[in-house]
Amino acid sequence: MASLTNLSIDLNKVQKDKVKDGRWLNITIALNDEVDQFGNNASCFHYQTKEQRDNGIAKVYVGNGKVVWENGTIVKAPYIERVNNTSQNANREETDLF
Known about the structure:
Blueprint: E1 3-9, E2 19-20, E3 24-25, E4 27-31, E5 42-46, H1 50-54, E6 61-70
Antiparallel strand pairs: 1-6, 2-3, 4-5, 5-6
């Protein structure tokens, strides 16, 4: 898929406990087939696990926007459940790269 999407994120809606290591926020972007009353056809919300989705936990929307360009070929990527890599990285040595 090739597209460009401009989003505005309302930082007041970001749940601080969702920010990992003080700087990472996992979000999901939804592209809609129709535009809303403001011309937006994209929204973003806090990432949810499959279990949260299956249990009907409400999405926390943090922003919206619009697709500003796409090449006409939207390819659906296979869904891959994310893994918690904290345990995978437990034995790695920390290095200061700065």
